[in-house]
Amino acid sequence: MSRDVLERILWSLSVDRFSKEKFREDPQKFLGRFSIDEEGVRMILEFDVKGMQEAGVNPMLTLGYWIEMSPDRQVSSYNRKLGSDSAHSASIKG
Question: How far does CA 41 lie from the centroid of its chain?
């Protein structure tokens, strides 16, 4: 899986209104525009921010993606996905 492709997708979904709309309409079709493997698609569709960060994706991109696209946009929920209960965490600790 390409970290660069994941980062480009997350950036697009964080800042581009057209991309957000297309993703909400049909996530699979939207992701089909990119050269991304099944694992990358799974991580994006399941909001697996921990997996993306472990793959080297920038934590600010995973946070922006979460805040813009997740059904539950709360940072506390994002932190739980990372395995942290801290309200101040934005990335996995390693």
Answer: 10
